[in-house]
């Protein structure tokens, strides 16, 4: 009986298949050709529903459609429906392509072709193809599907880019093609902004929330109309623009970090913190007392934090008969980050082996509450078809509230022993509040004076601020005896300091574009210039405290918490004589001319830029043996030339050359020295020179469809006077080694890149790979015996040249993202690989600090609830990948036992672990 039933089922299935067919094809925008991913194709049947959702490549497939004539309806949000009668014949595959018309049919052709695709993958690929520069773009759509919440997270998805992490383990700065962050600059909507960094000119990218971006552009080559201080490249944040119709979108997210679940979260009471020091409050003649310094903000608390909260909202529309466009956006992020670290302070062997020694072990537990606020507004007003005015205002705030609780063990101490559990201990708890802010105001305009002459301008006023009020250390000493910690005593020279700085920019850009219609309509001459006036002020004040009577400062006998300790203030007027109190300025005047020619399917851009720089500083308090005022002037001629040859409508080959520079940071040329308990001391270098480089680039690019790409490229950078930080003993300041910026002769950096994006119906693949090789030769110190055969001979220092990679340059960088898309579900698994690179350059031979290769794996899941709402889940750092620094040399004391030293062929210097983070959210869109 079962066999008979099975036979009939097979016959019925066979008959049904013979009387059914398949419908397949593509759906796209009629005007732009953009695949309408997510559109619905439905065959109208009585009593049955047959439909498909358009896939990532714009295709659809509907199987088992009954034979006969049926209506097929195609629909997509913002487009007019298309209904067509289709005849289905037995066993045949019917192919039908559909082109939908936007409901904004009253708009001009320009609007339909340019603005309907804002933030899409098609727009990103089109901009890459048409750009005169070597350009890579991450679209708004790609950002939405990624697990990234800040711009700093996004940049590591671009080919050739890696990231530098901050103390919390979060990405902060971009390294472009192996070039350190100092060799790149950041733009907002194509114009420069100042930095809130207290020492340097580069922008911390983690201050910008990802939700407000329309796209992220990375330009890896320059033309004469661009500012010339980007040897590595330029990162341009294109913020959301005014739409062509009503738009309201946003998201709400909750999250948690695994490390907080494992060990809790360290925090402190921020309410009593004084934003200004006693010196600032009461004047230079005021003698501060211990009662001027609150104590509640120096008491450590361990709590289970609330969930992370992230949200954004953007609104846009057009008014006054579409003349006025408005975009308003806001973002808020409150997160709780943690990192566990083991960090060794290393030295050099005193007996001539030139191997590292371990001086101190610092075991740290850090917790940081981060608050990001952002306000974004853009207006545009079309006076008429020839004149348009624009206005942009952005306000970006990042607050960090960090606690770092550290146990410091003297590993060279008289009784240090891992096996017997003995050692001299120092306990340091640091409480840091930091407030960073960037504000920029940018009115601009474009004026078409005739059919072949256009003027555009930008007037930019920006200010960046950073404050670190009442940054305090609570230092104790103790001892480990037979694996037991003895009661702690209060250490001397506890300190509390106030730092703040401002960076103010006033910039005017003016450009003229003339189309003489020589040879053809594509010929163009562009010329113009810019002027920037930049001023920076830096304030630093430190108060130092000793226990009033060290003999009566025993834990659990004389004190329990910080507020119980009886301190005396050693410097009641503070330490404002420090050279970190300075003013600096920079004035840049630039002019350029560039031409565009299009002949024999080749687009040629040739130009030259001239930049004149005046840079200097002034110390507020003169120091002995230090010049209190100094300035430098220099002029740079920066030619550029690029070719883009169109092999066919889908394929280009481009080549470019440009000369660029990198100016020293404002703080780097100030003659200062600063002690840092986080690591080595730091010092400035007034003799630091600017960096110059000749840059060559070639890339073959193919665009199989409007959303896919294949790139193969190579680059070479010939660099003169590269700046790197190295450990030196300064001739002016005595004391230990300090990290100091220096110029190092010449360097060569070259590499190859590959970038691939391919969409199948349900599956999408993005991958890129960059190999970078740089070489620089510098002089290193090696200690050895005067007579290598006589161990009793004197130790001497010998200078020896060593060739190594540039600081921060990773040999291998790769990204791989695999996406799956169904009717209502999007899934993405993204991996980022960064190879080993030098993090710190040592003055001693073979003692540089390298970071180990690291792979980060992230996961995204989106579930569409309806046409307005999407539920999503994000998991970051699935593998809990550690950040590790090491020296490629074994320890001087072979066989000695030290914690975390597991490989006898190398010396581990630092290990950071950040844990996984989890988020769930709801995104909404209404058009």
Automatic annotation (TrEMBL):
<dbReference type="Pfam" id="PF14905">
    <property type="entry name" value="OMP_b-brl_3"/>
</dbReference>
<feature type="signal peptide">
    <location>
        <begin position="1"/>
        <end position="20"/>
    </location>
</feature>
<dbReference type="InterPro" id="IPR012910">
    <property type="entry name" value="Plug_dom"/>
</dbReference>
<keyword id="KW-0675">Receptor</keyword>
<dbReference type="InterPro" id="IPR008969">
    <property type="entry name" value="CarboxyPept-like_regulatory"/>
</dbReference>
<dbReference type="InterPro" id="IPR037066">
    <property type="entry name" value="Plug_dom_sf"/>
</dbReference>
<keyword id="KW-0472">Membrane</keyword>
<dbReference type="InterPro" id="IPR041700">
    <property type="entry name" value="OMP_b-brl_3"/>
</dbReference>
<keyword id="KW-0732">Signal</keyword>
<dbReference type="Pfam" id="PF13715">
    <property type="entry name" value="CarbopepD_reg_2"/>
</dbReference>
<dbReference type="GO" id="GO:0009279">
    <property type="term" value="C:cell outer membrane"/>
</dbReference>
<feature type="domain" description="Outer membrane protein beta-barrel">
    <location>
        <begin position="564"/>
        <end position="881"/>
    </location>
</feature>
<protein>
    <submittedName>
        <fullName>TonB-dependent receptor</fullName>
    </submittedName>
</protein>
<dbReference type="Pfam" id="PF07715">
    <property type="entry name" value="Plug"/>
</dbReference>
<dbReference type="InterPro" id="IPR036942">
    <property type="entry name" value="Beta-barrel_TonB_sf"/>
</dbReference>
<keyword id="KW-0998">Cell outer membrane</keyword>
<feature type="domain" description="TonB-dependent receptor plug">
    <location>
        <begin position="129"/>
        <end position="234"/>
    </location>
</feature>
């Amino acid at each position: 009986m079962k066999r008979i039933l099975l036979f009939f089922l097979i016959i019925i299935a066979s008959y049904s298949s013979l009387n059914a067919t398949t419908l397949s094809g593509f759906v796209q925008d009629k005007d732009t050709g953009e695949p309408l991913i997510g559109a619905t194709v439905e065959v109208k049947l009585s009593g049955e529903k047959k439909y498909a959702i358009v896939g990532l490549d714009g295709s659809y497939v509907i199987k088992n459609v009954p034979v006969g004539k049926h209506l097929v309806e195609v629909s997509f949000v913002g487009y007019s429906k298309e209904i067509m009668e289709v005849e289905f014949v037995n066993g045949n595959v019917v192919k039908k392509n559909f082109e939908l018309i936007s409901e904004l049919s009253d708009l001009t052709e320009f609007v339909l072709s340019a603005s309907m695709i804002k933030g899409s993958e098609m727009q990103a690929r089109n901009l890459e193809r048409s750009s005169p520069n070597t350009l890579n773009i991450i679209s708004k759509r790609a950002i939405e599907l990624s697990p990234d919440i800040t711009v700093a997270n996004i940049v590591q998805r671009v080919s050739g880019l890696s990231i530098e992490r901050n103390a919390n383990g979060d990405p902060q700065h971009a390294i472009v093609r192996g070039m350190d962050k100092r060799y790149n600059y950041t733009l907002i909507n194509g114009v420069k902004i100042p930095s809130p960094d207290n020492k340097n000119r580069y922008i911390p990218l983690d201050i910008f929330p990802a939700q407000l971006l329309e796209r992220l552009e990375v330009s890896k080559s320059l033309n004469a109309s661009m500012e010339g201080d980007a040897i590595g490249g330029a990162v341009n944040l294109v913020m959301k623009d005014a739409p062509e119709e009503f738009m309201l979108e946003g998201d709400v997210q909750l999250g948690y970090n695994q490390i907080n679940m494992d060990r809790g979260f360290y925090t402190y009471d921020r309410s009593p913190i004084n934003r200004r020091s006693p010196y600032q409050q009461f004047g230079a003649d005021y003698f501060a007392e211990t009662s001027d310094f609150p104590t509640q903000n120096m008491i450590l608390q361990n709590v289970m934090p609330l969930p992370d909260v992230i949200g954004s909202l953007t609104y846009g529309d057009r008014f006054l008969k579409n003349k006025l466009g408005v975009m308003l956006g806001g973002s808020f992020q409150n997160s709780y980050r943690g990192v566990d670290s083991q960090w060794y302070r290393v030295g050099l062997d005193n007996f001539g082996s030139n191997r590292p020694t371990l001086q101190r072990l610092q075991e740290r537990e850090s917790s940081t509450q981060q608050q990001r606020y952002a306000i974004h507004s853009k207006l545009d007003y079309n006076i008429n078809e020839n004149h348009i005015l624009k206005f942009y205002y952005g306000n970006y705030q990042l607050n960090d509230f960090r606690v770092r609780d550290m146990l410091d063990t003297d590993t060279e101490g008289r009784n240090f022993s891992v096996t017997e559990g003995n050692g001299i201990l120092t306990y340091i708890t640091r409480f840091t509040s930091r407030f960073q802010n960037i504000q920029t105001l940018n009115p601009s305009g474009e004026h078409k004076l005739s059919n072949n002459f256009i003027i555009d301008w930008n007037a930019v006023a920006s200010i960046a601020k950073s404050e670190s009020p009442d940054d305090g250390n609570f230092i104790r000493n103790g001892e480990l005896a037979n694996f037991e910690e003895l009661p702690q005593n209060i250490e001397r020279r506890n300190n509390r300091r106030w730092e703040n700085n401002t960076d103010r920019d006033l910039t005017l850009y003016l450009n003229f574009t003339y189309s003489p219609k020589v040879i053809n309509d594509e010929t163009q001459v562009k010329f113009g210039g810019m002027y920037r006036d930049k001023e920076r002020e830096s304030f630093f004040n430190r108060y130092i405290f000793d226990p009033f009577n060290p003999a009566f400062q025993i834990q659990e006998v004389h004190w329990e918490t910080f507020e119980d300790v009886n301190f005396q203030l050693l410097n009641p007027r503070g330490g404002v004589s420090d050279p970190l109190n300075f003013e600096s300025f920079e004035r840049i005047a630039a002019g350029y001319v560039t031409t565009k020619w299009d002949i024999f399917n080749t687009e040629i851009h040739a130009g030259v830029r001239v930049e004149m720089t005046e840079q200097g500083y002034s110390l507020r308090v003169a120091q002995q043996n230090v010049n209190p005022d100094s300035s430098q002037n220099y002029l740079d001629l920066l030619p550029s030339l690029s070719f883009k040859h169109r092999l066919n409508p889908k394929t280009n080959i481009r080549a470019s050359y440009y000369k660029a520079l990198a100016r020293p940071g404002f703080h780097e040329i100030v003659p200062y020295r600063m002690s840092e308990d986080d690591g080595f001391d730091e010092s400035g270098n007034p003799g630091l020179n600017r960096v110059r480089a000749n840059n060559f680039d070639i890339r073959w690019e193919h665009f199989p469809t409007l959303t896919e790409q294949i790139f193969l490229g190579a680059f070479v950078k010939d660099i003169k006077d590269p700046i790197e930080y190295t450990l030196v003993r300064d001739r002016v300041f005595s004391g230990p080694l300090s990290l100091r910026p220096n110029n190092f002769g010449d360097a060569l950096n070259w590499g190859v890149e590959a970038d691939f994006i391919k969409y199948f119906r349900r599956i999408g693949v993005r991958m890129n790979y960059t190999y970078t090789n740089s070489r620089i030769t510098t002089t290193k110190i090696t200690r050895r015996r005067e007579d290598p055969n006589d161990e009793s001979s004197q130790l001497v220092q010998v200078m020896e040249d060593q060739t190594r990679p540039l600081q921060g340059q990773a040999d291998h960088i790769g990204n791989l993202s695999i996406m799956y898309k169904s009717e209502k579900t999007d899934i993405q698994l993204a991996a980022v690989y960064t190879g080993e690179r030098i993090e710190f350059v040592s003055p001693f031979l073979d003692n540089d600090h390298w970071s180990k290769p690291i792979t980060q794996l992230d996961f995204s899941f989106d579930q569409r609830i309806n046409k307005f709402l999407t539920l999503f889940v994000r998991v970051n750092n699935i593998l809990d990948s550690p950040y590790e620094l090491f020296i490629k040399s074994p320890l001087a004391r072979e066989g000695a036992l030290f914690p975390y030293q597991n490989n006898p062929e190398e010396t581990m210097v630092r290990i950071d672990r950040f844990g996984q983070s989890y988020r769930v959210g709801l995104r909404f869109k209404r058009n």
